Each structure stands twice: as C-alpha cells, then as structure tokens.
Amino acid sequence: MGRPVCFDQFHAAEIGIVHAVLRYARRVFLAGVDHITGKDFAFRREWILIAACLLVGQSLAEEARYRQPEGRGVAAQYPGDKGIAEHPDVIYATDFTKGIEAPLRPRRRGVSLIEDSDLARTGGAAARIVATKGADEGGDLSIQWDEGAEQIFVRVYVRFDKNTAMPHHFINVGGNTPTYEFRWGGGAGRRPPGDENGSFGTTLEPPKNPDGYWQFYTYWHEMRSWQTPEGKSDGRPSAYYGNNFGYPKKTPRLERDSWICVEYMIKLNQVGEHDGEMAFWIDGINYGHWKPGSPQGRWLRENFFTRGQFFENFANPQPFEGFSWRTHESLKINRAQLQWFLSERSYRDSEVDEYIVYFDNLVISKSYIGPIADEIP
C-alpha cells in the first residue's frame, strides 16, 4: 500500500496535532574484527581507553578545583570548637560565651550579646546585630591584629532572622598600612594604592533572595571601573566601586532561622606577581576559588562574569589572571569585619522595622578551618 500524500492528510484551514518520528541508523564498529568486512579495528581500543581516561581526569580535576580544600580542617582537632584558640595557626577564636572580647570590638549601633543556649550554635551565647529602619544602618564587629599575614581564613556561623532584609555589605577581610589615607573610612568609590600607603579588601555578600548566590565584592589597586566597558575611568568622580565576582557553581538555597557555616580565604601575591587568590566555602563545601588560570570568565566594566547572559553570549572567555593584591611587602592581611550594613536600598522593599543577624563561633586562622566537629558524647 502506498503512502498517502501530505495534502490528503492535512488541511490548511484546520489546526492539527502531528506526531513525527525520525528513524536513522548507521552501523558503527568500534573495535575488534568486523566479520562482514574482515577489517581489524583492535587499534581503536587504545584510543577509546585514552579518551575515557582523559574524560575521567578532566571531571576529577574540575571537581577538585571546586572542592579543595574542604571538610573539617583545624576544627576537626577540636570537637565543639573547644580549645581551638590553642592551635598555632589560630589568631583569634570566640564562641561569645564570655561576651564580646577584645581585640574584637563593636562599631556603630545595634551590636549586642544574646544569652540563649537554644539559639546559640554552641555554648550559651551569640552576637546579635540589629539594623533599625529610619534610625540607623546596623553595626559591625571588627578586629585587627598587629602581625599581618600572607594568607588568612575566616570562619563564622551566621543566622539570618526570618523577617530580615539582606544587607548592602556583609563579612569583610583585608589589609591596610598605618599610613593609608582612608583607613578610618571614606574610601568608597576610590581605587586604593597597593604600596606602603595602600589597602585592599574583599567582602563576601550573601544572596539578596533565597534563590540567589553568594559572591565577592572587592577593592584592590588593579580593580576596574564601572564607567566604561573596558573597566577604565572616563574622568567622572567615584569611578571605582567594588568589583563583583560571582561563580558558575550554584550556591545552596539561603535558609532563614538556621545556622550557616561561612568561611573564606585571601592569599596574598608575591610582589610583582599575579598569584594572589580568594575563595569561599558554605557549610564546608567550596563554591568559589579565584586564582591564576581559574575560573574561565569575562571582564565587563567592574564585573568578572562566569555565569549569566554576559558570559554565555561571549564567544571567548579567558582564564582569570590571579590577583596582585599589593605592590609592596609591607601591605599584609591584618583586619576583619562582621558587617551588618543596610542601606536605604536594603530597607526599600521590606515592611518590618528591625533587621537582625546572629554570629557565633568566629575563628580566624592561617590555615583552613572547616565546620565545627561534632562532640563525642
């Protein structure tokens, strides 16, 4: 029986539902002796093995790039964080059971201690910072140490109140020399020098909504301007605001009223080199690591894109060049801030009057810390 022609099956004036099936088959012989042609394709076995090994190796390398280091770190040696301050790499540690202890100090309004063993991550207390709409912009807990470091890890547990808006700026780590002009503030919109009168800093920002992602907001002497696509200033004032670094690996959904382990790292460059790094972990899993050669991305204005339309529509992504955090060895990492800064923009779409975050189990170390190890009963 012959096939019916198309115009007998479809009518131009009607809407029809069509199921189309495409069948296509081709015989492919990968390896061994083809009994039809008699040809021996055994040599292909080695090709297939090499290709499979390369694919597996590439997959493992990609996984390692995202996930190293992770796990327990220094905290593994101190269940419940008890005694962790005694580790030789630890610069400062607190669970707030003894209050807000020096050299950690509150700045601005809204910082207090809450004694509540049901709320605290461990022990019986946590730090609380409140920003009040129409009255203030929140507060900070700040710490500085005299002997600057070449590499620093900061780990802290954070808990966002269920009704809070998200902050304009959050946890910051960086370094200033004693002669930096804006060491007491006022450096926003300016590119800092990287020399003996210099500064640098990077802020880890939480998602602005539950389905968003964590990212870095960074100041250093080679930062780019928002004013032109090439990242150069066009002469207008306030040319340099923090450069944004998002990451292609989706961070976990932001949970309110739940403790989140946040850790991040800065590693300084050797003077004259671009071998500086930064990275962050959420609940012990590494979600971002910027270092020489990784990740692949694209600079546009003040943003290094590794996801979204400005990256996906770009035909020639380049490996990240690495950081030159400084041009003089006297500039080291010597400060950290647990910021809770809410601007008018933060308050704009929220209906409550108080915006609350809690911090607990802060550790600052020269090596990776990791989440709190469970205590053995």
What's the topology here?
Layout: H1 6-9, H2 44-67, E1 90-94, E2 105-107, E3 111-115, E4 125-132, E5 138-149, E6 151-160, E7 169-176, E8 199-205, E9 215-219, E10 243-245, E11 260-267, E12 277-282, E13 285-290, E14 296-300, E15 303-305, H3 309-312, E16 318-319, E17 333-341, H4 344-347, E18 354-365
Parallel strand pairs: 10-15
Antiparallel strand pairs: 1-18, 2-5, 3-4, 4-18, 5-17, 6-11, 6-18, 7-8, 7-17, 8-9, 9-10, 11-12, 12-13, 14-15, 14-16
Terminal residue distance: 80 Å
Number of domains: 1
Count of helical stretches: 4
Low-confidence segments, given as residue ranges, are 5-13, 62-68
CATH architecture: Sandwich
Order of helices and strands: HHEEEEEEEEEEEEEEEHEEHE
Record field, number of beta strands: 18
Task: Using the coordinates above, name the CATH class.
Answer: Mainly Beta
Rg, Å, rounded: 27 Å
Mean pLDDT: 87
Q: What profile does the largest beta sheet have?
A: 10 strands, mixed
Beta-strand content bin = 25-35%
CATH topology: Jelly Rolls
Short description:
Residues 5-13 and 62-68 have low confidence and may be disordered. The protein has a single domain (89-365), classed as Jelly Rolls (Sandwich).
